[in-house]
Amino acid sequence: MSPRNPGTELDLSWISKVQVNQPAVLRRAQQIQARRTVKKEWQAAWLLKAVTFIDLTTLSGDDTYSNIQRLCYKAKYPIRKDLLEALNMHDKGITTAAVCVYPARVCDAVKALQVASCHIPVASVATGFPAGQTHLKTRLEEIKLAVEDGAMEIDVVINRTLVLTGQWEALYDEIRQFRKACGKAHLKTILATGELGSLTNVYKASMIAMMAGSDFIKTSTGKETVNATFPVAIVMLRAIRDFFWKTGNKVGFKPAGGIRSAKDSLAWLSLIKEELGDEWLKPELFRIGASALLSDIERQIYHHVTGRYAAYHDLPMC
User: Is the pTM for the entire model greater than 0.70?
Assistant: First the structure.
């Protein structure tokens, strides 16, 4: 199940035999959603941990240098300093895991982080995000340009047509080319699971992406009608676990799209802990793609410290 060597054939005949037990997956998802969350100081601790997994994202058509600069500042200082001091966490170096922008904004993000003396990596979406419906040559060039501009992580989108028509070897070859174009940059492969048709296809695409050399597999672009859901996550996480058992290689996981509340983030951390264990609860192996999530986490931390909910002017950087 490792990448093939040049001149050897890739045997993917087993892929057609894979089936996902959908009722069992849905039952497991209901268990996660029904579970009570942690409270008080335990909640505050888990929320601060969640901050360190966030890829703070802006993917808007009206992005400019000024709001990229603001995003990078917020990534370096995600929680107000006085709130961290109240929790005795002001000297722990809490930042988000990365900032994520469009390829044309990578230079802006790199510059803003340098000005802020911050070493958070810049991630860039690429390969015709979000639809992935541009020529392969164009998609590969987009990766190379983003890396040249300073992106250390590339979030690529797959061609969903290859999944829906069962062209697994073509999908493998395409992702291998993405891997090569990334060079030393980390490759995060977006499956766009809401457009793959079935949970069985989600498992198959996850395995192909990992076999082709992805450092992370990611649920969604955030632009689909259906984005990160627990059933999809369970299937992807168990694919990651199967891949680890068979190869010894740890692949990261990134849910994205629709994760907006602090309560949501706690449920995702709980799921990772239960399905993959504590060793996956670090930024090298788990990320959350989000833009609005950090604001709600900071509000909940504010409430924990002060006993009241923040007014808009209390957290202006949100």
Answer: yes
